[in-house]
Amino acid sequence: MGAVPGWLRIGGPVVVLLVIAALLVWIIGAFLGFILKLVIGAAFVIGIAALVADANRQVSR
Question: What is the longest distance spanned by two Cα atoms in the chain?
């Protein structure tokens, strides 16, 4: 076998590192998206519950 070119010797680990970095960004992004949806959903539910409670208070007067 011939000598391995320099760009291939450097390029292999760089490609592996880029793939690992892309996977980490994807996983962290998905997790942050899930947390964001959870926070927005909780705020929505709390807001609706507050509106219902306020409406009940006004109706019972």
Answer: 91
DSSP state of 5: P
Render pLDDT for 36-45 as a digit per residue (tens, 0 to 9). Answer: 999 999 999 9
Record the tokens describing residue 18, joined without a space. 């880029």
Half-sphere exposure of 11 (CA within 13 A, CB side): 5
Enter the pTM of the model.
0.55
In the numeric block, which tokens belong to residue 34?
A: 């899930």
- Cα–Cα distance list, 50 to 30, 47, 58, 60 (Å): 30, 5, 12, 15
Q: Is 9 helix (H, G, I), strand (E, B) or coil?
A: helix
Which amino acid is residue 53, in one-letter code?
A
